[in-house]
Amino acid sequence: MSVAAAYAMSAPDGQFEKLMIERRELGPRDVLIDVKYAGICHSDIHTARDEWGSAKYPCVPGHEIAGIVAAVGPEVSKHQVGDRVGVGCMVDSCGVCGPCLANEEQYCDNGATMTYNTQVDSSIQPGGYTMGGYSTQVVVTENFVLSIPEGIGLDVAAPLLCAGITLFSPLRHWNAGPGKKVAIIGMGGLGHVGVKIAAAMGADVTVLSHSLSKQDDGKRFGAHHYYATGDKQTFRELRNRFDLILNTVSADLPIDSYLRLLKLDGTLVILGIPENPLSVRSFILAGYRRALAGSMIGGIAQTQEMLNFCAQHGIGAEIELISADEIDGAYDRVVASDVRYRFVIDAATI
Ligand code: NAP
Ligand code: ZN
What we know:
- By secondary structure, the protein is of the alpha/beta class.
- The protein is 24% helix and 26% strand.
- The protein is built from eleven helices and 17 strands.
- The strands form four sheets. Strands 3, 4, 5, 8, 9, 16 and 17 form a seven-stranded mixed beta sheet that branches. A six-stranded parallel beta sheet has the order 12-11-10-13-14-15, covered by helices on one side.
- Helix 4 crosses helix 5 (189-200) and helix 4 crosses helix 10 (300-312).
- Belongs to the zinc-containing alcohol dehydrogenase family.
- Keywords: Metal-binding, Oxidoreductase, Zinc.
């Protein structure tokens, strides 16, 4: 057993406080990672503030982890001490079900073990549930540890472990590329990385944001078009336009208005996960044979493919680096859509 420092919330309306947590002894296939950077995903906020209704306290969020291998178990073959590595939203899965065998561990039939807030045996995480990357060290089985290619800074790579793969996976699945019109709703942590990746894939990229306030940034990230959803004219002008729309918004949206922007056989993919159910008028789907779908992060092999793709195309997240005692303020700014474009915690300050 080793001891790590971490930042945790102890109640839904609490504040982050430092505490010491235990990490398991290294098993034969385990990797001990010195965390260098941890991104703040909106899912951390949904969980820590118990908006999804299953939070366990003290809650140590963090599933956008970048760091350096500090030690490895005797049977580890994929990583060595000193390697630049990352950990995303999952730290294990059953490995034998259909989705796992298809490299889609995030859809494991037996439930993937998420990086934080998943109940596990206390031999896996002392305390009985997983604790994430707002911490100085994590222990993860080698198959769930990604290699971060040289050429991407660890700080700007951290957000790719969740935000990057969450956008890369549906862009690949629905064949974004030359000749495809892709819209991304919401240009926050997920959305801004999605703009960069979709543009690098060669798609024609449109951002649908509250307002035009981030338009210059959107164009710099590679968007070809940028529209304000606060302007009703946007919905008239873009009707039946897109092959693929990715919704990254963390709040409830009038989804019918966005479905109308899909062309024949277009698909709107739900990525943002607000607490309330969606409501959709059947006619809007039936007309134009539109599809409404969802997608959750991506498998481990695809996450590695995404990291390699980002390194090749010079893609990292746009970040604001903060110290651990600034997490509460950062959460408030994310909720107020005042983030440019991902907060990343410098783990040296934990
Ligand atoms: P974020 O940084 O807060 O970005 C969300 C964006 O949504 C904001 O920047 C804003 O964009 C827009 N927005 C926020 N509130 C809005 C409102 N009331 N009305 C309209 N637009 C609003 O959050 P994130 O980290 O990207 O995460 C987004 C969502 O994805 C969260 O619900 C998170 O839990 C979920 N998520 C899902 C997966 C998955 O696997 N499916 C993975 C990670 C995260 P504009 O200012 O441009 O309008
Ligand atoms: Zn996330």
